Amino acid sequence: MVYTSRQRRKNYKEQIDPPVLLDPSLLRAARQIYRTYCEVHPNLAQEPYGVAIDRYTHRGKLIFRSRPILLPQECFVPFSQLEAEIYQ
User: Fold this and answer.
1) Which of 10, 32, 43, 86 measures 20 to 30 Å from 62, CA to CA?
2) C-alpha 66: how far from its chain's center?
3) Is residue 81 within 8 Å of 27, Cβ to Cβ?
4) What is the pLDDT of residue 12?
C-alpha cells in the first residue's frame, strides 16, 4: 500500500489573465495618473497593483488590491505596463 501526502504549494500565486493590448491613449492616461500619485505622495512606499481606468472618460484610480472589481466601462492597467515606459 502506498500513501501519498497532499501538500499545498506554499508560494502559490493567483493566476493572472494574459496581457491585453490596450489603447495607447489609455496607457498614457494611466501613466499620468500614476505619475501624479508619485508627485503628490513621494514618501509613500506602497506600490499599486495598477490603475482602473474608464475607457471613455480616461478618468482612473490607483488599485492597491490584487483582484480589482471593475465597472463594465473600465479596464485594468497593471503596474508592469505602467512602469515599462517609465524606465525606458
Assistant:
1) 10
2) 8
3) yes
4) 46
